[in-house]
Write a structure and sequence with these properties.
alpha/beta, eight-stranded parallel β-sheet, 12 helices
């Protein structure tokens, strides 16, 4: 509790809170594109400049610890100078691990990551709700679609937000194809149940494509996501999906442009949001693959008149 109290004092001493809120407004109708970089450096200024060199205006949070206030300040200042927003602080732990000790430790970790996101001024801290699967932390389990799962997720989200009391970031979870929330309607139910101003939406369109109807109808699915969740969306992931033909349904994540996800619809809806919700490339292997995905997304944007910050 002392650490969180000190963190709040540090936050209140900062003058960047109001500025970050203003910067988030999408007054230009442009999209902030980002992704991982491969520069070997710990210098926040060098990292920020590398994002701009690559044509990125959004970034994953550089490595930082909550107690290292000097580094946090350096990250904020360096990235603000280059007009590169920190899109997200990842908190990839299983908040519903069936092992009680692991679950407790994971929840503490996610809480600290949310606090870091608030200090850095990231758009969000993001995790998935978790899983009751004992061996794969994000894997399927019969109880992952149950009322118990939903209620436990509500309690976890409230606990994290109430401990951190974030003012510059949102705590978010991603939809998953086999864990709640698994649809825009399920996410709306979760937003209502959590009932916290600091709870938002991190949208990963591909994570919700879990059946042939959504794969073939992904344009309508994308539009539904933004129509229902738009007021709460603070950051998004950029991927693509191919259908690998087997004797059961198998969707494979691929570089944007090599699959069937409708990026015209995705970019149009992003550009209409009231805030600049970053679009972050992920899950690729090499700098060349990220370059290909970035080039495809920018070309799609150019073809439909959607600009990039």
């Amino acid at each position: 509790m002392a650490k969180l109290a000190n963190r709040r004092a540090f936050l209140l001493s900062s003058s960047l809170g109001a500025a970050s809120v203003l910067a988030a407004r999408n007054v230009s109708g442009k999209v902030r594109l980002g992704g991982p970089i491969f520069l070997k450096s710990d210098d926040p200024a060098e990292l920020a400049r590398e994002h701009r060199r690559l044509g990125y205006s959004a970034a994953y949070c550089p490595e930082a610890k909550l107690e290292d206030t000097g580094r946090i300040r350096a990250i904020r200042d360096a990235f603000a100078k280059e007009d590169v927003v920190v899109a997200e602080v990842g908190a990839w732990k299983n908040m519903l691990d069936p092992d009680e000790a692991k679950r407790r430790d994971n929840l503490a970790y996610v809480t600290a990551r949310c606090a870091l996101a608030d200090e850095v001024g990231a758009r969000c801290c993001v995790d998935i709700a978790g899983s009751y699967n004992p061996t794969v932390w994000y894997g399927p389990h019969p109880k992952n679609l149950s009322r118990d799962f939903f209620d436990a997720t509500v309690a976890n989200c409230r606990q994290i937000i109430d401990a951190v009391k974030p003012t510059r970031t949102k705590f978010t979870i991603e939809m998953m194809g086999w864990n709640l929330p698994d649809s825009p309607d399920a996410y709306l139910q979760l937003i209502k149940a959590v009932d916290r101003q600091a709870f938002g939406v991190h949208l990963d369109v591909c994570n919700g494509v879990n059946c042939p109807a959504r794969f073939y109808g992904n344009t309508a699915y994308i539009e539904e996501c933004f129509a229902k969740l738009g007021p709460w969306i603070v950051s998004c992931h950029a991927k693509d999906l191919q259908w690998i033909v087997e004797l059961n349904v198998h969707f494979l994540e691929v570089i944007p442009g090599r699959g069937e996800i409708d990026y015209q619809a995705y970019l149009r809806e992003l550009a209409k949001l009231p805030v600049q919700a970053p679009l972050m490339l992920e899950h690729l292997k090499t700098a060349e693959e990220y370059e290909e995905g970035k080039r495809y997304i920018r070309n799609v944007g150019d073809s439909i008149g959607v600009g990039f910050a």
